[in-house]
Design a protein that fits this description.
The chain has about 325 residues and is α/β, with parallel strands linked by helices. It is built from 14 helices and 10 strands. It folds into 2 domains: about 180 residues, D-Maltodextrin-Binding Protein, domain 2, CATH 3.40.190.10; about 110 residues, 3-Layer(aba) Sandwich (D-Maltodextrin-Binding Protein, domain 2), CATH 3.40.190.10. It is globular, with a radius of gyration of 23 Å.
């Protein structure tokens, strides 16, 4: 009996010896997302499935709209953000040193839709040549969330590829995604440039047709395209490499889960975006999965194409091109 008691006591002591170091390795991080949207579904999966927690990382997610997510990293208000690679490029061009430590989405998620009546009047369909579809924008008003974003860059790229001037041949109306969808329906605007899933809603409610779509294969010369990445300040990962490894490890596991378990991933996403039309939801969800890679490794080719869109799309001046991307991304935290 005494031997049994002693054995339990020794086991308990040894157990504590192993537990204490594990607890000591628990780390915390803050993570800024620029919106609640389909492109960031791995962040929701990682949280709900405990992929960060099991690695010894507690992640506090917060939504800081648009460029504010990147600015929060630059101001050291948060450790990490998920931001577009064009934003990372532009920040570094301006001397704001920020680095991408993992890629999260490989295609352009931007689409432009046109109100059915306007498309019919212009005599175009979704299968019309790109120049005819672009020229249908002449004299029209296009709704979008904000100017000089990746959405605006893609719209300009489309216009220039179609032979029209994006600064003079049509007008931009800045409004929220919800207001844009309502404006298309009412006829207050003729077209809308948005990211998934908002671009799909007007298609599925029968008020618009697809004018151009990056995720559906328009402009294959832009692929691969480094759209979103996990970003941080370079010094953070130098000082806390395990923090960055855990952050990337949990997010990448969530990306793989999204690819391998679509139905379960849908359920997780619907908790963040409830009440959406089922057809529009499924459409945007499949496009999101299509461009979600199994690895977070970033390539020069993807960043080069992102920079090309920025230059042609008016987000970056020709003389501002980065000749090397060595200082703006790293793959050393990706397995």
């Amino acid at each position: 009996m005494l031997k049994t008691v002693l054995a339990f006591a020794v086991a308990a002591i040894l157990g504590l010896a192993f537990i204490r170091p594990a607890l000591a390795q628990q780390e915390e991080a803050t993570f800024a997302l620029p919106a609640i949207t389909f492109a960031f579904v791995p962040a929701y999966i990682a949280e709900d499935m405990g992929y960060w927690t099991k690695r010894g990382l507690t992640v506090k997610q917060t939504v800081i709209t648009g460029i504010g997510a990147m600015n929060a990293v630059l101001s050291r208000s948060v450790e990490f953000s998920i931001s577009s690679m064009p934003t990372v490029i532009r920040a570094n061009v301006r001397g704001q040193k920020v680095i991408a430590i993992g890629g999260a989405f490989e295609g352009t998620a931007v689409e432009v839709v046109m109100r059915n009546e306007a498309a019919k009047a212009a005599g175009i369909t979704e299968s019309s040549p790109v120049d005819k579809r672009a020229q249908a924008l002449k004299g029209k008003t296009v709704a979008m969330l904000a100017p000089n974003t990746i959405v605006h860059g893609y719209l300009r790229y489309f216009a220039k590829k179609g032979g029209i001037d994006p600064e003079r041949d049509f007008k931009i109306a800045v409004m929220s995604q919800e207001a844009s969808i309502a404006a298309i329906k009412s006829g207050a605007v003729d077209a809308m440039a948005q990211v998934l899933p908002y671009s799909t809603i007007s298609i599925h409610n029968g008020t618009a047709m697809m004018l151009t779509s990056g995720p559906r294969g328009e402009f294959p010369e832009l692929n691969p395209f480094a759209l979103n990445g996990i970003t941080s300040l370079p010094a953070l990962c130098d000082q806390k490499p395990t923090l960055c490894q855990k952050m990337i490890g949990g997010y990448q596991e969530a990306m793989i889960y999204l690819l391998d378990h679509p139905q379960e991933s849908k359920a997780i996403l619907k908790k963040r975006i409830p009440g959406m039309d089922e057809g529009a939801f499924d459409d945007a969800f499949e496009m999101t999965r299509k461009w979600t890679p199994r690895t977070m490794k970033i390539s020069d080719a993807g960043i080069k194409n992102a920079q090309e869109l920025m230059v042609i799309g008016g987000m970056l001046k020709e003389e501002e091109r980065l000749s090397s991307f060595n200082d703006i991304y790293t793959n050393k935290y990706v397995n």
